[in-house]
Specification:
It contains two helices and four strands, in the order ββββαα. The protein is of the alpha+beta class and 65 residues long.
């Protein structure tokens, strides 16, 4: 493998999408927030989590904010 080629991705690896703004990341960043709503996991990027921190801490569903 030379410097210009990237290593192959792991099988089953997929990108993560912010449920609020649609930002994507190749893998789940440590700084993103995860919320379980209606039995499903929702992920929020740094910016969205910071903007809605009080609502997240109050455990409001994302539909409220």
């Amino acid at each position: 493998m030379n410097e210009r080629t990237s290593p192959p991705t792991q099988p089953g690896a997929r990108s993560v999408v912010c449920s609020r703004c649609g930002a994507t990341a190749d893998s789940l960043p440590v700084t993103w927030t995860c919320s379980v709503e209606n039995g499903g996991r929702l992920y929020f990027c740094d910016d969205c989590a910071r903007a809605h921190l009080r609502a997240i801490e109050s455990r409001l569903d994302s539909s409220w904010w």
